[in-house]
Amino acid sequence: MTHQPQQSPEFPRLYPMGDSAFVVELGDAVDPGINQAVLGLELTLNHMSIHGLSEIVPSYRSLMILFDPLILPLETLTQKIHQALLQSPNTPLPRARHWTIPVCYGADHGEDITEVSTLLNITVPEIIAAHTNAEYRVYMIGFSPGYAYLGGLSPRLHIPRRQTPRPAVKPGAIGIAGQQACVFTNAAPTGWYILGATPIPAFEPARDPACLFRAGDQLRFAEISPDRYNNLVLDIQNGLDITAAFAAPAPANLGPI
Amino acid sequence: MREINVLKTGPANSIQDLGRFGHQRLGITQSGPMDLVAFRTAQILLDNPDNAPMIELAGMGGDFRLGRNSSPVQFALTGAKFAASLNSTAIDLNRVYMLGIGDVLSIGAAQIGNYGYLALRGGIDIEHVLGSSATHSRAGLGGHQGRTLRAGDQLSVGSAPKLAPVLIPSASRSTAGIETIHVIQNPQSEMFTPASLDRFYTQVYSVTAKMDRMGVYLTGHPLSHRAGHDIISDGNPNGAIQIPGSGLPIVLLADRQPTGGYPKIATIITADLGRFAQLRGGQKLRFQPVSHAQALEKLRRVNTALENTPKLLVSAPDRKESRLLSYNLISGAISSGDTMPWED
Hints:
Chain B: GO terms for molecular function: hydrolase activity. By secondary structure, chain A is of the alpha+beta class.
């Protein structure tokens, strides 16, 4: 996969957002190529170690660059970004990891699955098949700690958000809404529909790295039984190496460019 | 050993340092003080390191006393004006006091502003989570057990030599009239009709009661989006003013979500963030656009004022010593009306 952005005269679009943030938009679509270009630019800017640049927040199709304007003048930052934009197509990205995330569907773990079945007029086994047969891309992490925005949901499962949020879900809840899928990391009320739960904690502040997923990762879901779910909870409590157990390097065609 | 006990506390008081930086790409909020100027003023008064953790008081204070075997601890209150007393005698903002054995520091409701800072000499000694001790209660990160303070909490205080008592002569803050908050317009403002954009800068907004460390809801005439109010989720800087479907602004602050999907019409300049966060429900404001250069000029002015603060510090009268002096002057006749707390 290349991270050359789609050619468009409008992009890249550079603009300040307040006095201490600067935005670089590389497109206006949820698209793996644009997202890959975002990650390439982020890495290139990080390699440049720009004095006064404090933090970069990459998202689907843009980067927000936080900086200290009294140390790093806007003009200098803009120049550096133009320089980075030229270099970034040649910056190798780390090999994407490929996760297989175990999910226990329905019943206590996915209380909305029958509602989704009724709303979309498909059977529960069809929902599980559609959800597990897709390959997802982690486009970005945001909203709350370690929360992964996933693209790649089967069109059969596209469903509008709830009108009013459902009560708080537990960490590990597996949700769908619109064209997106996600893994919840925090208990929070949500407009998403919950199909199941994974025993894998995607965010643990004391773990290094605290967040399991990173943007650019590929992900699949695999169905497990309630017993397997309970056993995995115990295994994880007893120190199971999650990365070793559930992540593998992606096939070569998903690796660095 | 230095320890402070929380006897009573408002529901949203939390430990904050400068904030948690470098993790927003993982969805981890920056946090840190809502009023950075007041926070920094407290560190200067107590000659603490810039990042020393302190207690941010949100609207309602609390009662504090030393731990059982603790040595005395110096403290100062900055930011919002709270009704505060040390052993029932009123105390001032921006002044170093000593919390001695048996003393009770009692802080009531905020009278002007929202956020006060109770800083202790030596700072609160608390472990870092992801590089910071700032509390982000929604995610259960940092601070005391990842949450806001509760009665019964016991906080360790870092050791530091005793400081000569000082104060900053107080400047009164007016709450009357319409506050002007300066912003830099964002290109996402193109998503609004020209009439709405014009209205954004001309109308007077009111702060609503719906506010917390995450954001503040404003009320006024709703703005209209040209077509829809969804953008592809992107980064939210501190002070971003997002306009959801209601057409009414939500200003995103220290505990904001790092990314979001509503258009951001403008961003409050860094120099005005603390002043905005101190506006209370019902207070009126107007947004005024400035250039990047003007925003930096204002930021420099704020920083220069903070850098000059040490020059403003004056010795606080040592009430204990002046009391002894007056005893001598009146040859041992002790006034029973003297209820000054022991402080230095």
